Automatic annotation (TrEMBL):
It comes from the Bacteria. Belongs to the CdaR family. This is Transcriptional regulator. Residues 109-223 form the CdaR GGDEF-like domain. Residues 37-90 are annotated as: Disordered. Residues 53-81 have a biased composition (Low complexity). Residues 276-331 form the PucR C-terminal helix-turn-helix domain.
Amino acid sequence: MVSASVRPGSGSDRGDMLDLLMARLAALLGDDVLERDEPAGVDGADAADESAETAQTAEAARTSDTVTTSTTSATSAIADSKAPRSPRPADARSLLESIVFACLAESTDDERVVSLMHMLGWPAQFVCCSIAGTPPSRDVAACAASIRGHLRPHADGTPQDCLIGEHDGHLVALVRVDDGTSPDEVARIAEACFDGHEPICLGPTRQNADGASRAIRAAINALFALKACTREVPQPMRCEDLLPERALMGDEDARDELVTSIYQALKGDNPNDPTLQTVSIFLDSGASLDATARTLSVHPNTVRYRLKRATEICGWDATDTREAYVLSTAITLGRLRDAGLWRDNGFQQV
């Protein structure tokens, strides 16, 4: 298996690089190596235009003197070949999977990646989840084959959609979720295929290419975030078990989950709802019911009721030490967002 790790670079650099890779890939594979269905809604004229455009791109790639990239493993396998022979279908598919996985792992999930995923049989819209862990005996190929072997095929007998890549010593699988494959089944596959003596992570369930990118990165980040967690987590663990650590690492999916599912849920739409205020004061008071009641000028039983209601709303219990940390992180991030110290990929510079 080809490692899908890529070196850091700006978004623009990675975008230009992907354009070159797609052109080179078209030149390498040709039209008869990977079969794929024509996308729904594309008529004959559009298909012809697309075919002509692809042919022109491929010809440009063939006549190009050099192709400069800064990727490793999967991408360099394409760029370093000046006059390659046409690969076998299995080789071509593995190569394409490596490229797609590398793009998703590096937050590249635009229409070009969607097009590449379509070549692998993935629909434009789908639901997916991720799993990550360490291959038994560090045998990456055997572990990948085991994961694919455990997945139920589609009703027509075709294999279940699955992308597998290696990232910093961990094997990550992105599996399409449908009527035949549920997240619970994917979790059982993870337990059966990964080394049970090493951390195993069950990623979130997300939608489409952008969600696939988040699911892959969430699973990877959770495995690294585990090193900063002082509390024992279940095995296999879920990404949600390490939301604060992942958010501090810069994981956008974790940050959004904390703000949307916890802070915004507690805040609600009613400005007079005291739930968020009660939880915040309770956490700031060292989890003291009496101190919280005095600050709010209410009875301690009222505080208990509000805390119970908060748990019902967001699923996290402020009276539990670990869950209190999750709530505290979510409230801090939410207040930063409300204060305008926010942007799509992190915080504003002040």
